[in-house]
Amino acid sequence: MKSLTDTSKLFYLFISPWIAGFCIFTLFPMLFSLFASFTNWNGLTIPSFIGINNYVNILTTDTMFLTALKNTLYYVGASVPLTTVFSIILALLLNKRLPGTNFFRALFYLPTICSGVALYITWLYLYNQDFGFFNVLLSFIGIQGPGWLTSVDLAMPSLIFMDMFSCGTAMTIVLAGLQDVPASYYEAADLDGAGPFYKFKNITFPMISPVIFFNILMALIKGLQIFTQPYVMTDGGPANSTYVYGLHLYKAAFLYSKFGYASALAWVFFIVLIALSVIIFLTSKSWVFYREDVN
Asked: What is the C-alpha to C-alpha distance for residues 212 and 169, in angstroms, rounded to an integer?
């Protein structure tokens, strides 16, 4: 076996803080949570091994498991497509070289750098049934505004609508992809008399499809981990309509001190996340095109 060169030693020296941090703060907690998922542990006493009982209880006796999973998948199934489409539309509009474009780019990106809790409290005021901004606007045209966060039918759609306006990062990534599309492609299409729809379908979308794929995957992972929004704004209500998986896991661990059971919940959800990610990767072969595919 060859001895390490000076360059290799220097490389490992520089990445060693990251490796140490990954092992201590990520890898070890993951492995310990896997062990804890097979135990009865309240976070204070010594864990007692109970085999797969936690997993059996999740699938057989936990009445809120399916509710939390269904609400989370509903949120993801609606928010990911809407946020992706909205970010593409914004990026297409802000890709124009017009006066004020940079201002609007910064304006739409601003919510992504604001504190999550502060942002959600602001939306609480916007959604307020008595003096919220949306209901005040509706009152001007003689419509009595609903309880956006107190209605079983509107609470989750309200959270999804709010999430659409936090697409600044996705918009910026799509915008970077748009600016990487060679102008010669559009010039050739113009010579052929192609219209805007044709150019988007046959040039723009194929060229930025890897970027869109990345945004969908990141939005999926982020959406499945939803917790702060319902925790701050609805606490899972009304009538458990916004009771998501992250909230269920949090309450199992920190409200009922069932850390072993919460670890099992986390690993079940990890399997769901992996399964959905694999499906997205497999289906991406039919619509994601890389540069060598479209040249």
From this structure: 12
Using alpha carbons, list the distances in angstroms from residue 270 to 27, 223, 263, 275: 14, 13, 10, 9
Q: In sequence order, which residues have a C-beta less than 8 Å from that of residue 264 and are 6 or more positions away?
A: 37, 38, 54, 55, 58
Per residue in 17-76, pLDDT (tens digit) is 999 999 999 999 999 999 999 999 998 889 999 999 999 999 999 999 999 999 999 999
Handedness of CA 74, 158, 240, 249 (dihedral sign): positive
**Contacts (Cβ under 8 Å, ≥6 apart) of 208:** 88, 174, 177, 178, 181
Q: List the domains of the chain with CATH numbers.
A: 48-294 (1.10.3720.10)
Helices (H), the chain: 6-22, 28-36, 53-60, 65-94, 101-109, 116-127, 133-140, 155-164, 168-179, 183-191, 196-199, 205-224, 228-233, 245-250, 259-283, 291-294
Residues in the chain: 295
What is the DSSP secondary structure assignment for residue 286, as one 8-state letter?
G
Average pLDDT, the chain: 90
The pTM for the full model equals 0.90
Rounded (5°) CA angle 269-270-271: 90
Q: Can you say how many angstroms the Cα of residue 119 is from the centroid of all Cα atoms in its chain?
A: 16
Task: Compute the distance between CA of residue 257 and CA of residue 262 in angstroms, rounded to an integer.
Answer: 9
* Cβ 262 vs Cβ 253: under 8 Å: yes
Averaged pLDDT, 133-156? 93
